[in-house]
Write a structure and sequence with these properties.
The protein has 389 residues and is an alpha/beta fold. The protein is 39% helix and 14% strand. It has two domains: 6-216 and 327-388, 3-Layer(aba) Sandwich (Rossmann fold); 246-318, formyl-coa transferase, domain 3 (2-Layer Sandwich), CATH 3.30.1540.
Amino acid sequence: MKGGNQDALPLSGVRVVDFTQVMLGPCCTQMLADYGADVIKIEKQKIGDLSRWSLGEDVDGLNNPIFSSLNRNKRSMSLDLKSEDDRAIVLRLIETADVVVNNFRPGVMERMGFGFADLQKINPCLIYAVGTGFGLDGPNRHKGGQDVLAQALSGAMHRRADQALPLSIYPTALADYAAGMHLVQGILFALLHRQKTGKGQQVAVSLFSSMLAMQMQEAAVRMMRQKDLNWAAFPLSGVFETTDGAIVMVGAFKENPLRDICAALEIEDLSKQQRFSTHDLQVAARPELQAVFRENYAKNTTAHWIERLEQVDILCAPVKTLEEALADPQTTVNRMIVEATSSSGSPLKLIGSPIDMSDAPFAIHRPPPQLGEHREEILAELGAASDAA
């Protein structure tokens, strides 16, 4: 279970009081915990993080795979924040903390007496990190924040390879993960700033802003040139079915990619025809070109076309299932699957860290916590700290 020297990790000695749940906040605090922070997860008694219930009844109870994927290397305290005794515990924890993180709607922490202004009075050096759906101010500040809503309101959902296709939800939580990683960045920036100034500050991100940031190229083209930029709609790119699966091709970054694609397909060089001779003409003729590609790719296997395209240096890849991607040798080489044992003895298989540090390697130091598992341990530490004071 334990790997490496946790005290040597970059965030060793940083204490994080974590009020987050579901994904935006937990993926942020898990990254901090992976690299040494002491993350203390504050959970509602008997219920805990809502992601503990995402799969309904599960063989591992409240430590289902969704919760486990987001909460390793943390400690859990289950508290009743309406209880004066438990509120006093939280405030004592915050006195010892470097960072407090929450992803409630704006105003929730303030109503509990745990807003930035409240906590700064008892810990002026505190970094107060907030993840919301749409921002701390503005017309949508009180709107429920959720990944799919951010996809829709940011314009990302409207953009697709072919406008004839129906609108759809992207099946991976892009906004949650992007905002979570932006929150990690903000916290690290604030820690560095505190080293220089001695001051804490508030750090805020939102799902909405993170989705806009992911579209920085497209937004700049729209605002400055009044044009649409859609990488998925380029005429020489696309996903095409083969006899045994599908292939994705990116016909770009070359002087004449259409010529090379035609060579791989063993058809006439369409780039010699006037109507396909420039990029703009190819854009106008995209439906016709895509039909040619579909017809020809359907004649042979994915492996056949990968070999042919790579011979002429056209970017391509097979379209894999998640199961196939997890079994890919590159996944193993990159150490992206980690195995451990839960505190109840069940086997764990989780995605590791995408950050590979030569002197601070990732490891699971603690399994995802049972609800309230570390309450007494943390209380004992607080008592010892009080005695020492």
